[in-house]
Amino acid sequence: MTAHVLDGVGTATAIKEDLRQRVDALRARGVLPGLGTLLVGDDPASRSYVTGKHRDCAEIGVESIRIELPADSSDDDVRAAVRDLNANPAVTGFIVQLPLPRGIRQNDVISLIDPEKDADGLHPVNLGRLVQAVDGASSATVLPCTPMGILELLGRYGIDMDGKNVAVVGRGLTVGRPLGLLLTMKGVDATVTLCHSRTRDIPGEVRRADVVIAAAGVPHLVKPDWVKPGAAVIDVGVTRVGTSPSGRARLAGDVHPTVADVAGWLSPNPGGIGPMTRAMLVANVVRAAERGSDL
């Protein structure tokens, strides 16, 4: 068996084409969607990710507003930048790129974001709305980008989650924890096992799953003998494992490459969930502009 590829690049391209048409409709009414980003420090992965987000905006017609601060910025400096983005009328949605440097209280900074401009869906108000969304999320709920990208990618390939057993490996704020909430909403109706570093038998939990979502940030953690034949496997985690002779970073996902010999469906890494996450981020910004214009 060779797994079918869940192509995040192609799927994200189709989503961006739809978003471009929605942005054109907004611009015709004099509404200009704008994505703001706050980058603190010069972590190469974070800078690359932010650059990709603004490249997507340029393709779609969304305005870009960037704030960059040095790594030694104080907590007050970061808070002031968040307040500026909250107050900027050109910004319909923005993100604080994570992780923040040591010494900056990440949760406090996220809590300062205006929930209506929270493009990542990580503000406590928006996570609270997600907790309440048992019967399905309303159009006013800002959903976390990577979990939404995962669901969108599975849905576009016709992988029905109704009644499926799903193993999520990793309990982080940006993927694991909110993903479990999305997967168990009515209309999705999956049964979720959330695995983490204290789970006693992660391989056993994964083997029972129809869908495996690996988001632990541990290179090649999920081995082929962990995976049920024919299962759908989504590789989310990315770790820098060295540098190529040309000087480019060498990256590894959480899923061992030979899982492709067992799985029925597999998202590549890179080229799977990364483009989908960025597409969902821009979708959140466009949706916020539409809400603001009552479109």
Account of the 3D structure:
There is one protein chain. With 295 residues, this protein is an alpha/beta fold. The chain folds into two domains: 30-116, Leucine Dehydrogenase, chain A, domain 1 (Rossmann fold, 3-Layer(aba) Sandwich), CATH 3.40.50; 144-275, NAD(P)-binding Rossmann-like Domain (Rossmann fold). It is built from nine helices and eleven strands. The strands form three sheets. The protein has a six-stranded parallel sheet with strand order 1-11-8-7-5-6. A three-stranded parallel sheet has the order 3-2-4, with helices on both faces. Helix 7 (176-183) links the parallel strand 5 (165-169) and strand 6 (191-195). The protein is globular, with a radius of gyration of 19 Å.
Question: What keyword list fits this structure?
Answer:
295 residues, alpha/beta, Rossmann fold, 2 domains, six-stranded parallel β-sheet, three-stranded parallel β-sheet, 9 helices, 39% helix
SSE topology:
Layout (H helix, E strand, L loop, with lengths): L3 E2 L2 H21 L5 E7 L3 H17 L2 E7 L5 H13 L5 E4 L9 H7 L11 H9 L12 H12 L8 E5 L6 H8 L7 E5 L6 H6 L3 E4 L17 E4 L2 E6 L5 E5 L11 E2 L6 H21 L2
Parallel strand pairs: 1-11, 2-3, 2-4, 5-6, 5-7, 7-8, 8-11
Antiparallel strand pairs: 9-10
Helix pairs in contact: 1-9, 2-9, 6-7, 6-9
